[in-house]
């Protein structure tokens, strides 16, 4: 599969993407647990079919100490018992936030309330921004057919 577009070959898109990626690095300093961030990033990328992001976030999560069992079960988190209640609430919010077109009314109140039980307002704001950020990154990569070559090294994009 050939990439359709090199964003960095053009002044406007290269500048925008440079700032976009810089904004993404801010999440690493956020008060939302790193494991939760990686699980959410991975799940959003799975839903959107973004292979390059799945490769990246699987490797980053592994480097951060995530177990293969949990990573393999992210796609079926509802049926898996290896996630905390907070992680389950974050994954549920990530799914509804990613599938807004499929859900009449967007993210449901019950989903939001479950997330709010586990995360304070700053963490919720970070979670919402992370979900939105990942959806934007996934869409850019899927639209332009950015391939997952399997050569990503953890931390390279951060």
Automatic annotation (TrEMBL):
Occurrences of domain Carboxymuconolactone decarboxylase-like (ranges): 25-96
Gene Ontology MF: a single term: peroxiredoxin activity
Superkingdom, taxonomy of origin: Bacteria
Keywords from the named record: Oxidoreductase, Peroxidase
UniProt protein name: Alkylhydroperoxidase
